[in-house]
Amino acid sequence: MSDGRSDSVVIERIVDATVDRVWQMWTDPQQFAQWYGPDGSTIQVAKMDTSVGGARLVRMDVDTPGGPRRMWFSGEHLEVIDNKRLVYTESMSDEHGNVLAPSDIGMPADHPVTTQVVIELEDLGDRTKMVLTHIGVPSGSPGATGWIMALDKLALVLADSTT
């Protein structure tokens, strides 16, 4: 699950869906909202322009031990190769996409302001190998746990859509 870098989480999965279907789950706002985020979260996608240079703005409402919390994530798509590779930046932001310092929203001061998400897909016929690398989020962190939960939900959504 780790590439040896302490500053990134790497998760590899093989899912029972075509590469085209998996790509849609990452790039279509309505499909992305079905699975993204940790258990107990709901997603509203305000913007997802998946062209290179295109902006993304995602709202996550999550139940925490301290009560409900609303978080916004903004970013820019850096690389888009259909059905193969998606790279985007991610920063915590306000609802307008203005980037916030992690300390402004209760995160550790050493948390990076901007991280990078890399999704690599390999076509295995009716299955797809997916490798997610989130640079700037340490393996073993709450963010890594959130990704594991989200990818578990993705696999369930994909399984439900094939039956």
Question: Explain this structure to me?
Answer:
The chain is an alpha+beta fold and 163 residues long. 21% of the residues lie in helices and 42% in strands. It has helices spanning 19-27, 29-33, 142-162; strands at 8-15, 41-48, 55-64, 67-81, 85-93, 114-123, 128-135. A 7-stranded antiparallel beta sheet has the order 1-7-6-5-4-3-2. It starts with 7 loop residues before the first strand and ends with a helix.
Keywords:
21% helix, 42% strand, alpha+beta, Alpha-D-Glucose-1,6-Bisphosphate, Chain A, domain 4, 3 helices, disordered N terminus, seven-stranded antiparallel beta sheet, single chain
Provide a concise account of the structure shown:
With 163 residues, the protein is α+β, with helices and mostly antiparallel strands. It has helices at residues 19-27, 29-33, 142-162; strands at residues 8-15, 41-48, 55-64, 67-81, 85-93, 114-123, 128-135. Strands 1-7-6-5-4-3-2 form a seven-stranded antiparallel sheet.
